[in-house]
Amino acid sequence: MYNDLKGKVAVVTGSSSGLGRAIAIRFGQEGMKVVVNGPNDEKVLAEVVEEVKKAGGEATGVVADISKEEDVKKLIDTAISEFGTLDVMMNNAGVQKEIASHEMSLEDWNKVISVNLTGTFMCSRNAIDYMVKNDKKGTVINMSSVHDTIPWPHFVHYASSKGGIRMMTETLALEYAPKGIRVNAIGPGAINTPINAEKFSDPEAKKGVLELIPMGYVAESEEVASIAAFLASEEAKYVTGVTVHVDGGMTLYPGFQAGKG
Ligand code: NAD
């Protein structure tokens, strides 16, 4: 636990499920005030609000599609109107869809880019605008992926969005460091969330993924949420512009393990 997080205000995008949900609950355990969000899932958001409160925090839910500018405004404005300020912008929401690159329509491409990259940009921009105008030394955390580094056939839109997030993170970190605003990212490997449910339900596919993880297991969402709490906290006060890969070694070229290569 990080004492300085108590009472801090966070927005967590895409917190109706998976990693975002776990991060919202972890922020609740830290005693934070959390705006939880999803694009169309009011009922689930109400459940997450209760989970965050049960964990020890305060919470409110906002249905907002982060690929829409007016929804992003509503999301950030709610943190300020309900909880008085914004300290932590956790850009977690993301989507993916498998499709060969030569068959990918512009619509398929735009869907992933508009949520993962443009949505992350708009939430960061609005949050930083508030922080700059209110002299707030806040922090932005972007959810990237090991695919900011590892190429991923059939997911060119997704890999491009996450590679873009890495450079967005570094650029914003450099631009706002003089104002004391930190911008970092988390790059998960294979985590047990609904986004992977179909793949992990096939034992052969799961075996294939495990072969890519030197530590030999698929992590749970809480193992990523703990890194979000650390990056949000004062314990990370001199850390900006980095992507922390939470991946059991997946980015370490596992093909070279055990004398190969
Ligand atoms: P998930 O599908 O369980 O959760 C995605 C969340 O984003 C959901 O709450 C969904 O409602 C929300 N969302 C989707 N479109 C949205 C929109 N337009 N506006 C607002 N919210 C929207 O998946 P997850 O695994 O929890 O993924 C969360 C993030 O972590 C994503 O950015 C994903 O790319 C990243 N990630 C996940 C893994 C993994 O193994 N699970 C690995 C690397 C990166």
Automatic annotation (TrEMBL):
Entry's EC annotation? 1.1.1.47
Q: Which reaction does it catalyse?
A: D-glucose + NADP(+) = D-glucono-1,5-lactone + NADPH + H(+); D-glucose + NAD(+) = D-glucono-1,5-lactone + NADH + H(+)
InterPro entries attached to this UniProt entry: NAD(P)-bd_dom_sf, Sc_DH/Rdtase_CS, SDR_fam
Which keywords accompany this UniProt record? Oxidoreductase
Highest taxon above the source species:
Bacteria
A Pfam family matched in the record: adh_short_C2
Q: Report the enzyme's class at the first EC level.
A: oxidoreductase
The subunit structure is:
Homotetramer.
* Recorded family membership: Belongs to the short-chain dehydrogenases/reductases (SDR) family.
Q: What is this protein called?
A: glucose 1-dehydrogenase [NAD(P)(+)]
Source organism of the structure: Priestia endophytica DSM 13796
